Amino acid sequence: MKSSETLAWYPSQLPSVKLILGTAIIAVVKQGRPINTRTLIEYLYVVQAAKKMKLNDRIAMQTAIAVLKDNQNAHGHI
After folding, report:
1. Which one in 5, 10, 31, 40 has a CA-CA gap of 20 to 30 Å to 67?
2. pLDDT at residue 34 above 70?
């Protein structure tokens, strides 16, 4: 499932995704790590594994991860 398809089908989840990404950015900055897609994805995987979330929160978290992965695939350079 691509993030663009998910957001097209479920647009009410966009504020939750933005909140998750914003929280991830603030947490990564506080840790002193560089802000890039890889560190944000790693942080979101750690948070996802550590917390028990409601279904809507899990869906928003997966969408945020999918958005970051799509961004990394489109713009990442290895």
Report:
1. 31
2. yes
For tokens 């840790």, what's the residue? Answer: 31
Tell me the C-alpha distance between 26 and 73, whole Å. 23
Q: Could you tell me which residues come within 8 angstroms of residue 32 by beta carbon, excluding any fewer than 6 positions away?
A: none
Query: Using CA atoms in the order 31, 46, 70, 58, what is the torsion angle rounded to 10 degrees?
Result: -130
Cβ atoms of 46 and 7 within 8 Å: the answer is: no
Q: Kindly report the pTM of this predicted structure.
A: 0.75
Provide the phi-psi class of 34: left if phi over 0, else alpha when psi is between -120 and 50, else beta: beta
d(CA 45, CA 40): 9
- How many CA atoms are closer than 13 Å to the CA of 58, on its beta-carbon side? 7
65: nearest Cα among 10, 20, 15: 20
